[in-house]
Write a structure and sequence with these properties.
Radius of gyration: 19 Å
Number of domains: 1
Shape: globular
Strand content: under 5%
Region (Disordered): 218-249
Helix content: 55-70%
Order of helices and strands: HHHHHHHHH
Number of helices: 9
Distance between the termini: 31 Å
Largest sheet: none
Structural class: mainly alpha
Length: 249
């Protein structure tokens, strides 16, 4: 007897495709172009199964011009900026499941932080000594604007996290500085923005700091790469393993 449509969906889409997408974010040394394809695949999955992915369905309209997943890694900077702005709008409008935040969006945004910080650093290193110091560098301005938008996105998701994952996010960012010193300025701004979203009542619930720190000590450090620094975040190789996703499903 052949299984019904629901069984096929559970087995193929939710049991194979979606886990593969999460693994793509965690693959060390992964290609940015491959990551882009997986993110777009996630958009197609979300669009076709709105009931299963209701928490992020608003990010995947059928109009590709408006889809977060189609534009967040687009080659055109203005489409990336528009996708990030749409993410913040959706995040403010409705709660987002922490499973998606930790497994998908945090590693994606940190990977983009690394990319644009590296681009800004490279641009500064290539500056011509005879160049006009008052000239406006359009590429540098775009990188700076993108970094600020990404920081706002990370701060936005931090405001929706429970303490254990909030602490994990800050630890993850701070550990990046030890491996990539050129990220220091970006990370400091990001951590400050996240601290501004502190939304916990001290003493209202136990802060599982010791448990998170112990997990961070057990985690293996990720090897430095130029493309996917934060792709290892999803697998816990930088900043400690993310808390178990299943607790929020």
């Amino acid at each position: 007897r052949l299984p019904g449509r629901e069984q096929y969906e559970e087995l193929l889409v939710h049991g194979i495709v979606y886990p593969a997408i999460k693994r793509a974010l965690a693959v060390e040394g992964g290609s940015r172009d491959v990551l882009k394809e997986f993110v777009q695949l996630l958009g197609a999955v979300v669009r076709e199964f709105p009931g299963r992915y209701a928490g992020i369905y608003a990010l995947a309209p059928r109009d590709s011009e408006s889809s977060f997943f189609m534009n967040v890694l687009h080659i055109q900077p203005h489409r990336r900026m528009r996708a990030l702005a749409e993410f913040r709008r959706v995040l403010q409008a409705r709660p987002m499941p922490q499973t998606f935040i930790v497994a998908i969006f945090v590693p994606l945004f940190i990977s983009m932080l690394h990319e644009h910080s590296a681009g800004l650093r490279k641009k500064k290193g290539e500056e011509d000594e005879d160049a006009d110091p008052g000239a406006v560098d359009e590429d540098s301005e775009k990188n700076v604007a993108m970094l600020e938008s990404l920081i706002q996105c990370l701060a936005g998701v931090a405001g929706h996290l429970k303490w254990q994952r909030y602490y994990w996010l800050i630890s993850t960012l701070l550990k990046l500085v030890k491996k990539f010193q050129f990220l220091e300025g970006t990370v400091v701004r990001g951590v400050c923005a996240i601290l501004d979203t502190f939304h916990f009542e001290v003493g209202a619930e136990p802060l599982a700091q010791a448990e998170v720190v112990e997990e961070a000590k057990r985690a293996k450090p990720a090897k430095p790469t130029a493309v996917h620094t934060a792709q290892a975040v999803a697998s816990g190789k930088i900043g400690g393993r993310a808390p178990d996703e299943r607790q929020d499903e």
